[in-house]
From TrEMBL:
InterPro entries: PepSY-ass_TM. The keyword Ligase does not apply. Keywords: Membrane, Transmembrane, Transmembrane helix. This is PepSY domain-containing protein. Pfam families: PepSY_TM. PANTHER family: BLR4505 PROTEIN, IRON-REGULATED INNER MEMBRANE PROTEIN-RELATED. The chain crosses the membrane at residues 12-33, 157-178, 209-228, 357-382.
Length: 408
């Protein structure tokens, strides 16, 4: 049994190593995504105009009036002092072509006092420019910038499959890490004084043992992050009932036509405030998302004063049909079945935000550890593969030498 497990671990590791190195290093960085992005791009995030900020709804109306091609898709409903108002945008449908306008950007930073545009960027573009660097790393983490094929997100599926293999490999690895009850202490030890291959081996084996629990959590949640609907939700729903996912109504999958009336932002916020009282959500609406392709609004609830230090299961979201105002789904942390709570915990666990700042530190260090474990695993495999080749070559030469010594 053990030889089979060792072989499985070897081939699982070889198959996933390069992907896990990229995911581990990028994950270590994006644990601090907001802080690093703001530090790299102060002109995009910081407002220098003194004065009283205008209401975000007024700023949104002004932006869309100044450029009729623009439709705002994400709008924070609070402005932090000294910060710009960063909104998500998309192109409206061009009547001449029936297709959305090509804007060349999907995020706009507005001066909250004057309403002037301080910056634009295409979030997630394959660019290493200073303004796009952190979004590039973030998107690289879960898509590798692979294309869509036949409506299938190749990057998400690939990283989801890597997560599945990694999850299985975590089980295999812990089984082979303890060859016997008498030698279990070796699996926790690091031979620092010996260095060389012995230390490389211990970094891989013992490092994996010490971090096994957190590595397993990151592996399982990486599957949920990429393959929630096609894989994880169907499995979880067999064990525990799940609340329907947002946007499951077929009516919501019909895009909004140019002539169709859509509820205004002010109207949907009124509906959202009433829903918060009805659902006993302790926070006010903090941000508004509009999805033209789904004809839906989503409202995010949070306390603007403490949102940067969020912890736990995250924020509540409620969704409505953009045309009728009919409810289209909800995600309220801490409520629902055991399966609902499991699904709610996936992103907070994967990002470490479930434990606040300490959790993010752990996840960032784990990302580095994943890269180290992958590199040391490849190093061990290359050394053993070389040893096997040399042994095979020596075995092949041995009969020839024996034949030469045999008298004719």
């Amino acid at each position: 049994m053990r030889p089979l497990l060792v072989r499985l671990h070897r081939w699982f590791g070889i198959a996933t190593a390069s992907f896990l190195i990229v995911a581990g290093l990028s994950g270590a960085v994006i644990a601090w995504y907001q802080e690093l992005d703001a530090a790299l791009n102060p002109a995009f995030f910081r407002s220098v105009t003194p004065g009283r900020p205008q209401p975000p709804l007024a700023l949104a109306d002004r932006l869309e009036a100044a450029d009729p091609r623009i439709a705002i898709t994400y709008l924070p409903l609070h402005v932090e002092v000294g910060h710009t108002l960063i909104v998500g945008v998309a192109g409206r449908t061009n009547p001449a072509t029936g297709k959305p306008y090509e804007l060349g950007f999907n995020q706009v930073a507005l001066d909250p006092v004057t309403g002037a545009i301080q910056g634009r960027r295409a979030w997630g573009a394959p660019s290493l420019s200073r303004l796009n660097l952190l979004p590039f790393v973030y998107k690289l983490h879960y898509t590798l910038f692979l294309p869509l094929r036949g409506g299938l997100d190749m990057g998400r599926w690939l990283m989801g499959i890597v997560g599945i293999v990694w999850t299985i490999d975590c089980i295999v690895a812990i089984m082979i890490a303890f060859p016997s009850a008498k030698t279990w202490r070796k699996s926790f030890a690091f031979r620092m004084k010996r260095g060389g291959y012995a230390l490389v081996f211990d970094l891989h084996r013992s490092g994996g043992v010490w971090l096994w629990a957190v590595l397993s959590i990151v592996a399982v949640t990486s599957v949920s992050m990429n393959l929630a609907d096609p894989v994880v939700r169907p499995i979880v729903s067999r064990l525990s009932p799940l609340e329907p996912a947002p946007f499951t109504s077929s009516a919501l999958r019909q895009p909004v036509l140019a002539h169709e009336p859509v509820l205004s932002r002010e109207q949907i916020i009124e509906i959202a405030e009433a829903a918060a009282r009805r659902e006993h959500i302790p926070h006010t609406p903090g941000a508004l998302r509009y999805a033209p392709g789904l004809a839906a609004y989503g409202v995010r609830y949070f306390d603007a004063s403490s949102h940067r230090n969020e912890a736990g299961l995250g924020d509540a979201w409620l969704y409505w049909d953009a045309r009728t105002g009919a409810p289209a789904g909800r995600q309220i942390p801490g409520r629902g079945s055991a399966g609902d709570l499991f699904m709610q915990a996936q992103f907070p666990l994967h990002s470490g935000r479930i434990a606040g700042l300490a959790g993010r530190v752990v996840v960032s260090m784990t990302g580095l550890a994943v890269a180290v474990l992958s590199v040391t695993g490849l190093a061990i495999w290359l050394r053993k593969a070389r040893a096997r080749r040399l042994a095979a070559a020596a075995a092949a030469r041995r009969p020839a030498r024996e034949h030469e010594r045999t008298p004719v």
